[in-house]
Amino acid sequence: MAPFLRILGIETSCDETAAAVVERGQDGSSTVLSDVVLSQLDEHSAYGGVVPEIAARAHVEALDTLIEEALKRANVSLSDVDAIAATSGPGLIGGLLVGLMTGKAIARAAGKPLYAVNHLEGHALTARLTDGLSFPYLMLLVSGGHTQLILVRGVGDYERWGTTIDDALGEAFDKTAKLLGLPYPGGPAVEEAAKTGNPDRFDFPRPLVGEARLDFSFSGLKTAVRQAATEIAPLTQQDIADICASFQKAVSRTLKDRIGRGLQRFKREFPHLGEMPALVVAGGVAANLELRATLQDLCSVNGFRFIAPPLRLCTDNAVMIAWAGLERMATGAAADDLDVQPRSRWPLDSKAETLLGYGKRGAKA
Ligand code: KG4
Ligand code: ZN
């Protein structure tokens, strides 16, 4: 058996076009040979959000060159890779089609197996690439399209413990920013404004706090922000800062309650783990330093390790898609047929029910 497997990964499910070449040793070690990401942020920012048609077109224009670049930077040719991994869902269907069809064409032309990867599985397994984490662990995915707490039991073995019943957390940041006149994407703008604000000026709601279920809800918070902003309009810079700081505080408190319950449940379900349990975060919202600090604190108090992969690997990228493909190969799982179809919705936990409003922005992380 070869000492390692090498794969070309392709990601096109939202507004990042990405390609990467990654290796996995038999011992589970990883080597990222190349990691190329082209963000379409500039193309979408004028519209205050991702426009699916613009995204699909931009993927078509960029993908071939990006794949060539990824192979070049890795100093390999197609004949040197063992397989192709392409995101086939969940996400925006136009982008998924571009990436998956390209992956199929390369697989057919080069005579390599194709792995159609679930984007969420890419996020879920990244911590094994960065930190060599062993199963099981908990993962909090907080991005523009998803807010999920997932039990990661093994490759292909996931249990969704919580999800949002309305807006994703990144979406709540983006909408709050928009109604305060801050630029898109809203997360970084809200975080920046919050630095000079008073977090105690507004007492925003903390939806579902205290409830036993592990789901999230953020649309009431957004509505409360709108009401506060309308009441004190016209807004000064200080008002905006105070609203942002109070919003972030409400989010922090909500996460503390929800995730705290998740950590307790994990300890009940896995009392004899043999090592310190771990909580992993992924998704763009994981960039927020206040939320990170909250989660870090919560983990210390509950005896958990807090694992936040480098931001580049927390947000959308092709390394995680390549890695998810490699992890599947390593389990001996069969490759996909070339007639595999993209899926705009594709929950990691097929047994989890779809909650009302879930994934409104396109079921995308
Ligand atoms: O994972 P990601 O890069 O893309 C997808 O959603 O697919 O996440 C983007 C989301 C946006 O909603 C953005 O506002 C949010 O992550 N975000 C943040 C921060 N940076 C990005 N939210 C809060 N604080 C931040 N610093
Ligand atoms: Zn994502």
Can you describe this structure?
The chain has two domains: 4-127 and 312-330, ATPase, nucleotide binding domain (Nucleotidyltransferase, domain 5, 2-Layer Sandwich), CATH 3.30.420.40; 135-311, 2-Layer Sandwich (Nucleotidyltransferase, domain 5). It has helices spanning 41-45, 52-74, 93-110, 119-131, 169-179, 186-194, 219-232, 237-269, 289-302, 311-314, 319-330; strands spanning 4-11, 16-25, 30-39, 83-89, 114-118, 137-142, 147-154, 157-163, 278-282, 305-307. Residues 356-365 have low confidence and may be disordered. 43% of the residues lie in helices and 19% in strands. It contains eleven helices and ten strands. A hairpin with a 4-residue loop joins strand 1 and strand 2 (16-25). The strands form two sheets. Strands 3-2-1-4-5 form a five-stranded mixed β-sheet, with helices on both faces. It is of the alpha/beta class. It is globular. 5'-O-[(R)-(carboxyoxy)(hydroxy)phosphoryl]adenosine (KG4) binds at residues 14, 143-145, 170, 173-174, 185-188, 191, 283-285, 287-288, 315-316, 364-365.
Task: Please write out the topology.
Blueprint: E1 4-11, E2 16-25, E3 30-39, H1 41-45, H2 52-74, E4 83-89, H3 93-110, E5 114-118, H4 119-131, E6 137-142, E7 147-154, E8 157-163, H5 169-179, H6 186-194, H7 219-232, H8 237-269, E9 278-282, H9 289-302, E10 305-307, H10 311-314, H11 319-330
Parallel strand pairs: 1-4, 4-5, 6-9, 9-10
Antiparallel strand pairs: 1-2, 2-3, 6-7, 7-8
The protein binds 5'-O-[(R)-(carboxyoxy)(hydroxy)phosphoryl]adenosine (KG4) and zinc ion.
